[in-house]
Amino acid sequence: MTKTLRKPVTMLLALCMVFTLAVGACADDITSSGGSATSPVNLTTTNEGIGGGDGGGETTPTRMSVTVPTALPMAMSDDGTVVTASDCKITNNSYGAVRVRSVSISAAAGWNLTAFGDKSSLAGEKVDSNKLGFAMSIGGGAQVATSTNEATQSLITAPIDGCYMTGVGDSTRNSVSVAYSAIVTPLSSVVENANVANVVFVIEWDDIADATE
């Protein structure tokens, strides 16, 4: 069955299911003047629903779709100045609101993390010691940064200001900027597009459960 045919058929099946439920919901009889009956409003989530999709009409919750940067590029000049991208962001393409739950960074093979600060703090380090100090701010919130030499470090452990995004219906608040800075020890050889670290973003629904805790 082609995709063009599948959508109308799936929608028809979904409607049939709704109508079947509706018969049961409206089965109460009122037998006297002024009498009343209650009809429950029942909701079933489907993969196709009214808006379409490419699934088989199975029941599913709201789909999460959040885009994070594919990479966080950096360029270091010959005087040690590190320039980073200015247009990185996290975008929520989901219907529901989301938040950044946590962010961590791990050094790549052959590299080491160090405390972030002014590049002058690395003046005493050996050339080619491959050390990276990293800092980040999400959505204009507080800057978080590496602070030790541990190979993996937590930058954000719980949502903070700047980590919250609305659903896709609000295009003014469904994305947050990812601003970052770095310092790197001197290099004696040319480096091009080398993987020096990996940042992990954990995204979750901005649900009512945490709001009531």
Radius of gyration: 26 Å
Elements, N to C (H/E)? HEEEEEEEEEEEEH
State the shape: elongated
Please give the share of residues in helix: 10-25%
Count of discrete alpha- or pi-helical segments spanning 4 or more residues: 2
The low-confidence runs, each spanning 5 or more residues with pLDDT under 50, are 1-6, 21-26
- State the oligomer: single chain
Q: Mean pLDDT, rounded to whole units?
A: 83
Describe the structure.
With about 210 residues, this protein is of the alpha+beta class. It is built from two helices and twelve strands, in the order αββββββββββββα. Strands 1, 4, 6, 7, 8 and 11 form a six-stranded mixed beta sheet that branches. The chain is elongated, with a radius of gyration of 26 Å. The relative contact order is 0.18.
Topology:
Blueprint: H1 3-25, E1 66-67, E2 74-76, E3 82-84, E4 89-92, E5 98-107, E6 112-113, E7 131-138, E8 144-145, E9 152-156, E10 164-165, E11 175-184, E12 197-205, H2 208-211
Parallel strand pairs: 6-7
Antiparallel strand pairs: 1-4, 2-3, 4-11, 5-9, 5-10, 5-12, 7-8, 7-11
